[in-house]
Design a protein that fits this description.
heterodimer; A: about 400 residues; D-Amino Acid Oxidase, Chain A, domain 2; 3 domains; eight-stranded mixed beta sheet; B: Alpha-Beta Plaits; globular
Chain lengths: ~400, ~60
């Protein structure tokens, strides 16, 4: 028999967005419980482990060798015929950055949350929401299989791509098939990756997504793929695409796999509603992943900081209404929504491009030194060399 | 004429990598990932085949 618990803010899921929310809620004076269904925070890793770095200081994360694997100089984008465009740090600002050890990163963020006085329960699985007068007031959960209840003024769904909390609360998190990538990644050893770059391969090698190679040093690399589900017809196509890519790249086919991870990544426009009475969603659960890059850590952490502060304030004032929590909804939209929307439009355009156009775009950009990497600068550069190509993009200008 | 509901849907534990891709895309939320194992609510499932396509490794079969 496990005793019921009570707190101001309950965070379901101890990934980066959850730990961030917990930390900032606790720092703002709330009593915080964070639950994680697995026995180990950060494991299994379900991530390519590439991360930008400009945002870290804004949310109070200190870079540490505990979780930074290596720092890359830039990214290389490969067109279908493998013309290469290089984006280095000078062009991309701080958009390129680290390859990380995600398990260590997630643990560090949980440690930060714990140090801010968050109570953490492992092997604790949310099973249903508790409701009172229409508002969410906590969860029914199990701890080592034993049922109990956690009563909270604010419940935070930080339960990732497969979020149940959002669905139980009736928030609009359902995805269209074109707004999800099916992903698979191998960690491989003895491969010819270049530690200076994160590499991205576009076009028919990965319809609606890309193949990535993120170097981990010493001949190790994460070699993965995302394929848009709407472009998949049969079972196991994602794996087939990745295996085929590796087979055709001798620098990788000679490698050996030591780890395999799968996953779903949303590549959707921002959700219409992220809060309801007594509850808010954050991170992948709130579909905050950048639909163009597939990156979710930065957005989840940025929103987590806002979520934690608003949740604490709601608990302290006693106003846990949807109206009050809209402060969080508006808060994350002010920072993230415009870019999420713009990148979703760009993604929709890109996934419809034939390989020949991709080749022309990358070819046009390969020889150009862009002052700053922006959609506008890219379009101008392409227009100079292949004016017929940019016609497709006029509405983005 | 047998209805689609009569078909059996299952995730092979020998193939599944417990990634949750099927759970996130299911339009009816009838797939569960209990820490490691995938389960289906066969009464709710319409055998729409979306999870079969979304599963990166082909663990889900309907037959």
């Amino acid at each position: 028999m496990v005793a019921d618990l009570r707190c101001d803010v309950l965070v379901v899921g101890a990934g980066p967005a959850g730990s961030m929310t917990a930390k900032w809620a606790a720092k703002s004076g709330a009593s915080v419980i964070m639950i994680e269904k697995r026995q180990e925070i950060g494991s299994p890793v379900r991530c390519g482990e590439g991360m930008s770095k400009a945002w870290l200081s804004d949310v109070g994360i200190t870079p540490s060798n505990r979780w930074i694997n290596l720092e890359v100089e830039g990214a290389r984008i490969y067109s279908p015929s493998e013309k290469v465009m290089e984006i280095n740090e000078k062009h991309a600002g701080n958009e390129v950055g680290y390859v990380v050890e995600r398990d260590a990163f997630d643990k560090q963020l949980a440690i930060d949350a714990a140090n801010a006085n968050t109570t953490i329960h492992l092997k604790t699985h949310a099973k249903a929401l508790l409701r009172k007068n229409g508002a969410i007031v906590g969860v029914k959960a199990t701890h080592f299989g034993q049922p109990f209840e956690i009563h909270a003024k604010i419940t935070v769904g930080a339960d990732g791509f497969e979020s149940q909390v959002g669905r139980w609360a009736g928030l609009p998190t359902n995805l269209q098939l074109r707004d999800m990538d099916s992903c698979l990644q191998y960690r491989m050893t003895n491969v010819d990756s270049d530690v200076r770059y994160c590499d991205f391969y576009l076009g028919k090698v990965a319809p609606g997504g890309y193949v990535w190679v993120f170097p981990k040093g010493d001949g190790l690399a994460n070699v993965g793929i995302g394929v848009q589900v709407s472009q998949i017809k049969n079972a196991a196509e994602t794996k087939d695409y990745l295996d085929r890519w590796i087979e055709h790249h001798p620098g990788y086919s000679k490698g050996k796999k030591i780890d395999m991870v799968g996953g779903g990544v949303s590549i959707s426009p921002p959700i219409k509603q992220s809060v309801t009475d007594g509850l808010l969603l954050v991170g992948d659960a709130a579909r905050m992943i950048d639909p163009l890059t597939g990156g979710g850590i930065a957005n989840g952490c940025i929103a987590g900081k806002i979520a934690g502060k608003v949740a604490a304030e709601a608990a302290q004032t006693g106003d846990v209404s949807r109206t009050f929590l809209m402060k969080y909804d508006q808060g994350w939209r002010a920072v993230l929504e415009e870019k999420l929307l713009r990148n979703w439009v760009a993604k929709e355009k890109l996934v419809s491009l034939p390989d020949e156009i991709f080749d022309k775009i990358i070819d046009a950009l390969a020889g150009v030194k862009l002052e700053k990497l922006s959609v506008l600068n890219i379009l101008k550069a392409v227009k100079d060399k292949y004016p017929e190509v940019t016609k497709e993009f006029e509405n983005l200008l | 004429m047998p209805s689609k509901k009569d078909l059996h849907i299952e995730s092979s534990g020998e193939v599944c990598v417990s990634c949750g891709a099927c759970v996130g895309i299911c339009p009816l939320n009838c797939i569960y990932l209990d820490e490691w194992r995938i389960g289906f609510d066969e009464d709710v499932c319409t055998r729409c085949n979306i999870c079969v396509r979304a599963c990166p490794v082909g663990a889900i079969t309907i037959r």
